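Sequence, please.
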């Protein structure tokens, strides 16, 4: 199973992200846009997970999440990861209790290494990808200036999830496999 550990959002938040995404979609020349059900914050990309590893992931995540209480995050402004000829990823940034978020991400990264998942070498940059391979007529900064500001309410993060990623009828689908409650 192809999988990752992440944070999911309630329906209200997903709808607000989708409305924000639509504003960029409407002015883009081209791009691939994330489906609203796939909006999430990745904490650890795992790639392929076998049945034995899944059980060990469950145990590690249950232990980690049992040490932390729920915390708040808030979505902020958009940004990009540049590609060669296009915007590789258009995303929404994250604010709030970033110390807790970074601590959780780091602890997950460390705990899953002995199970066979290599530690991340890049600095963790929490975000929600809303589109990929985007091209705007006059570039991202001009597009960003034309988008109205959206105020996202703070969200209480109470659970983390193991998601599986599947390609179904030419569409990427993320499904929750396991839930881990922050105590």
């Amino acid at each position: 199973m192809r999988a990752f550990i992440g944070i999911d959002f309630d329906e209200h938040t997903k709808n607000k992200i989708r409305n924000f995404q639509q504003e960029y979609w409407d002015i883009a020349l081209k791009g691939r846009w994330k489906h609203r059900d796939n909006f999430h914050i990745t904490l650890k990309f795992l790639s392929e997970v076998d049945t034995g590893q899944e059980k060990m992931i469950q145990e590690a995540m249950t232990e980690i999440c049992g040490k932390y209480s729920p915390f708040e995050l808030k979505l902020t402004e958009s940004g990009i990861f540049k590609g060669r000829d296009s915007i590789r990823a258009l995303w929404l940034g994250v604010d709030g209790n970033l110390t807790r978020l970074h601590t959780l991400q780091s602890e997950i990264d460390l705990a899953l290494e002995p199970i066979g998942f290599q530690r991340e070498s890049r600095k963790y940059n929490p975000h929600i990808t809303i589109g990929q391979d985007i091209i705007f007529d006059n570039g991202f900064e001009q597009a960003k200036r034309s988008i109205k500001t959206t105020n996202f309410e703070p969200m209480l993060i109470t659970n983390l999830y193991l998601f599986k990623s599947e390609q179904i009828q030419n569409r990427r689908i993320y499904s929750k496999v396991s839930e881990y409650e922050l105590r």
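The domain at 2-181 is CATH 3.90.1140.10 (Cyclic Phosphodiesterase; Chain: A,).
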